[in-house]
Fold each of these.
Amino acid sequence: MRTKQDRSDELWKFWEAQEVTKTGRFFFLILVIAGVISIVRFFDWWFHPNHVASLPLFVILSLITWYGLLRLILIWINYLGIKKPKRAHAEDGLKVAIFTTSSPGEPLSMFDKTLEACANIIYPHTTYLLDDTQDPAFKEVAEKHGAVWLELVGLPGAKAGKVNKALQMIDEDFVLIMDPDHIPFPNFLDEVLGYFKDERVGFVQVAQTYYNQYRSFTARGAAEQTYTFYGPTMMGMYGYGTSVAIGANCTFRKKALDSIGGHGIGLAEDLITSIRLHAAGWKSVFNPVVVSRGLVPEDFGSFCKQQLKWSRGVFEILFSELPRLSKTLSLWQLISYFAISTYYLVGVTIFLYVAIPFMYFWGGWLPAKMDFGEFLVNGTPIIVIALLVYLYVQRWLSHPISERGLHWRGMVLKFATWPVFFLGALLAVVNVEIPYIPTAKKAVKGLSPYTRPLIFQVILFILTLGYVIYDRLYVASEGILILTSQKVWGMFAFAFVSIIMIIGGIYAAYESRDLEPEEPWKKIDLKKIKIRRKS
Amino acid sequence: MKRFVFVSAATVMGIALVLVFVFLGKQTSGPISGALDALGNKIIEVEQDYLLSQREPIRSKELAWFQPYRHNIELMKNPDTIFLGVYENNYLQSFDKIINLDESLKSTLPLIQIYTAWGDKDREKFPAIYAKTIYDLGSMPIITWEPWLNDFDREKHNLHAVADPNVAGMSTVARGDYDFYIEEWAHEIAAFEHNIFIRFGHEMNDPYRYPWGPQNNEPKDFVAAWQHVVNKFRELGVDNVIWIWAPQPAYLRYAEYYPGDEYVDWIGVGTLNYGTVASWSKWWTFKDIYGNYYDWLDMLDKPMMITEMGCLRVGGNREEWFRNALTDLPAKYPRLKAIILFNDDDDKTTLNKSLNWSIINDTSTCEVIRQTIKDTW
């Protein structure tokens, strides 16, 4: 497999997604129509009475498959709305604040770099450091870069509490809320403020991009999972009027935040804020430009922790926010937030998918009797078209040069974190908070506790293999041996696909053990950031 | 308007793209299923070699006496003993029921019958996996090969489009229209390597039952088709087939359907007693439906097989029926060299309802069969 070269040298340049042309849209529409027709044909083939082996299992298998295909169609429909906002120049004289928050335990040098980068932002603004470290060094570093230091201790929520308090203390009209690990480019505000000319615009989001993704398999995979989202996906959502805010680098109109009672508090704060703003009638803009880069989790444990937080938090949108806000959301917004807040059900579907072979080996239950050849002939067009679509929309990535690709690491990681998603969904349904899970340093042998279900799965697979071999050698009746040969080993091949993905996850965790903790921001030379536009 | 043109044009091209996939699908489905078949066979082969060959072959051992017979085709064409066999309809999932019948009869059955129709479907190809299973279980397969001609994709095989391909179908078989199918089977059977029975186009003189019958064909056309099939196999060097010609003697005119001594190895007759389950059936004894025709069939000088022996419980005593049929059978019918029990527990082929011929759980009948054979043969 070709190893992607480290494109770190390309990262610190301003970049924007390609324009959306009529021809681009046209070819894309052809693909989508062909894809939908193929899915309909597949539907027609799939639902045949003689395909059913065990009815309850067939229903489960159908639910998994058609849930996935429905989401695929939704993704395609979203892409059809793809839109890039016309360039809007920022008016002079706008009053802009930049918020960044600090908490105990965060590295001082990171703030040194970030605040310096904030100071380099061209458009006149005031940077505020919302600090609760109670460490005088932070006050010093803020003042060093001309930022206002606000001591805000004892407020709820990781970030939101401090943000809401600070909002009351400032008189600027626009607030860029930035994660401290993000390094903004000097032209950040120039790419964002122009869109607020439309009075109805409540927030403007730009692409969230990274600079440490080449450090590990986990980092690569985690980054790959986001590329399409911060390109064609959000561009589609913008086209339908439902692009969301991301806590790392979103710019808000203060009036908008005030109108909803401040920034949302919770595990998925940015999403909660988004939906409330949309429900209150505010519009959102997504500008697919690279104007800041931050950090993605580098070790498996941190990544899983983040995913657990999101998978638990995002369900709150479904259970708490959507029901009461549904009346004032537009149809597309409803669909979009519903789709986002149910995204992590993928943990449940992957679990069922993984369970099927084991149900066959231990219980003799087969869900379906489908001719594999027919399945290939009917299903392959969908896979091919889905792949073509996925690759085609990559022309609208925010930074194609480093983001294009098959993103297989992202897929492996996503599959291997199914236990995390499952747990998140489970906790959401019974409405329980996330329990404390120790960090990698405290875990056994340094392997993250999140690898336990994966190792268990591999062990179960090996045990099952042993059991089946034993059974076929000594126990099974002669009358069924050859007749079940293909089914048994076919099922193993099916299970093996899952195991390969899981092993990928275990590898990511294993690699994380030896990861040298580094401070990647130290190597960044802010003077080397290029912001010149190509055109 | 512009949007309408945009969407319509994209729709047309989208449909075109789908049609490309459909076309590719049709083209590749043959090769794909061929490749998957090969893969499937490889899996069976590899598992056999590395795993299953370690097993003790139980049933094979019980049939050790049968090995010299099934490996010697000339001996099987002129055997010196009577073979028992069975058709059991659940074989598609498992042969366990047949093993159960072995136990009920206290006799491991050397012949196992399966039915396959002609056509394009997977289940209409040579049943290699089942033949192999039967062989590994120590037995010899009998395949009843039914020349239904309506299940072929006529375009794909360059056949004339006709309303009913079965009408005058046998003459089209004779002239070579279905050689693509016959040759495929011949190759598969050659690859199987072991000897098998084929009962081709059975009950060809019954004008109601099967489409290759006299309602659609002249007797001479049936004979021509038969000869064509056998010749094809011989041309291709396939020499492990024993051909069973199986008329329905109850329909009296069957002599004219006889393909000739060089084309037939065994004579087969079905003896199913439907009892009084339908208006057209009575309680017919074994003598009624076979014994009375024995003398004429004997003149053909070939070993005979009861290809389907079964008795329903409606209208008479099943145990009696079997006892009468089997008592002194070798003495009464010296040419009768094989009896295949018809053990279908869900037969829907004759009446609208399901008929249960199975004797696996009928201990009294099994006892009668076992005892009668033991005492009188």
Amino acid sequence: MEKAIVLAATLIAFGLVMGLGALGAGIGDGLVTSRTVEGTARQPEMQQRLFTLMLISVGLIESLPIIGLGLGLFLIFVNPVLGQLK
Amino acid sequence: MTLLPLAAIETSHPTFSLGPVDFNQDTLFNTGLVCLLLVVLAIFLRTQVHSGVPGPVQNAVEGIVQYIGGLADESMIGRGIVLAPLAITLFVFLLLCNWIGLIPKLKSPTNDWNTTLSLALMIILLEQFFSFRKRGIGGFLKHTFLAPPFFIFTPILELAKPLTLSFRLYFNIFVGELLLALIIFLIPTWLSWIPGGIWTLFSLFVGIVQAFIFTVLGIAYIAVATEMEEGHA
């Protein structure tokens, strides 16, 4: 019974981590890219530098949900709470 | 205890121990492989150098050296610190480390927290060292422990730097390779080459971006830590 509760909670936590992480990162990615497009439209000669900056920022933002996914997979594969139960 | 019956996917590293210390076999082996590849590439390029039109490999390496070296030099203006060799080496090493895991049967050395954490600690130690050398003991202490209400936060910030730096690289590569293994495991073989190929291409891109971010953030940390104008932490 306790095991089932822990497993269900783990899966819910994994879903929350992935969903909320992807939501936030999606909003952030959208903001960064939209501003890059605006800047490029205003000053096309800046495109190369803006593109580099955009890549850095998107890479920084994208790493957050991926860290969440890594921690979530850690929760699923080697559940520390399940090990405590036995 | 595993939740999913995915015994076919190995996430832990095979180890051997020397005395009290455990060594990750695959990480050691693949790091050596990357180093060997880099040295062989460098020697090969050195023998091929001529004053005519450069070949594609020489072109790519020259592009990397100019771009990353220019970035390092630009952010170190007026500081008297030569950071370009470190930055270029770090970028090329991390790039090969990230890419070598995409070859079947090989694992990225960066798929191991030990590798990324040691590199991040190296960056942070360098940052503290340069900060100390540049500002002297008084300025170093003043910048490390700000005015009374804030002196708790700066050590936390400094501690967070190596953690985020290493976690970012490690989890990006770890999740990339794990998802590749999951795609191959869950999707029948005759179909799995489509998502597998797409994910491999994306992993190549992620490998470039993450190596670049690690290098640029390292340079930026050192640049901020050696800034001499007042009013900056």
